[in-house]
Protein: CaiB/BaiF family protein
Amino acid sequence: MTAPPAPSSAPLSGMLVADLSRVLAGPYATMLLADLGADVVKVEHPERGDDTRAWGPPWAGDQSAYYLALNRGKRSLAVDLKDPDGLAAVRTLCARADVVVQNFRPGTAERLGLGYADVAADNPGVVYCSISGFGPGHLRPDRPGFDVVIQGESGLMSTTGTPEGGPTKIGIPLADVLTGLNATTAVCAALVRRATTGRGEHIHVSLLNSALSALVQVGQSALVTGAEPERVGHAHPSIVPYQTFPTADGDIIIAAGNDALYRALCTVVERPDLAEDPRFRRNADRVAHRDILVAELTAALAKRSAEEWTALLSDAGVPVGKVRGVAEALRTADASGDEATMTVDHPVLGAVELIRPGFRFTGAAPQHGPAVLPPPLLGQHSVEVLRELGLSEERITALVERGTVVQHPVH
Structure:
């Protein structure tokens, strides 16, 4: 199967990924694999496609922002898996793929003949990643695993919010994103091992395990103490000051993670007495007298703007930042030269701005900017992919004519 051209320096250049996933965790993982240079073929339902195609508003033209966020760098094969010929084409795709990623409900892939055992029988070196909500070993593994459910079940929600308020959902689907990152990490590790051993791998990644592993020090505190961690809102349970503060015109975050940084903070805010006060000299003292110190610092910080304090504290080496809105954060990063966004040439929408991946390469980068395939239209590459799989023109025409395969008219 001939992949579209990718920079030869891209780490996964030449790798073929069969993306049988939908919604967020799986598509996020396969998008990252595409960012690393892989040829990702997104298999979609011929009528509705990925669920997120309908998850609007907001919309960019007739494309949902949700779908655009998760599917750059891919090609779309819209095919009905209930049709034996359509299913056979996808089986051929999986037999030739280096990586298969799926998040069907438990048992569905096996019923379709697309489970690991079926794919590995024809493709023993395949790296096969199964993504689920709760994992195969969990009681009731067939439970649907939506992000908000996992945030509650994992304890993430209980750690988020203020002491006086109830558990709060994190503003982004963090369990899904973490699962996508874990899947990408595991897939890349399996590909490295396969390069020396020739062995394939069946990887299981669940939203619940991804969220539980992300509890890090908060989870460890619960194990050490046997008690439920308390919600601390914008503050930190073990470090003071390490929280948001209001200024004359907006909020800033100060993270004085050690005694030296705290003393530097006191100098900048012109309160050297707070550094010498025995109640605040050491971090443990500051934690014990948190409310008193925070009140003193809040009064001092109210005298200047967020921009002024950010500059002054940064010059002094104190970790500080403004609390920004999402659009402001992206524009600020772009203006600083960080290139947080990129523009792709969409076949219907024209120039579309997308958020770049979180990694950068010092050498020639993998796909970036205009070279990146835009999030595909439903079935945009169906005929192209089927030709690469070796189907005859007559067979492809028959599949399209009976609706088993949908080919978007944009070429």
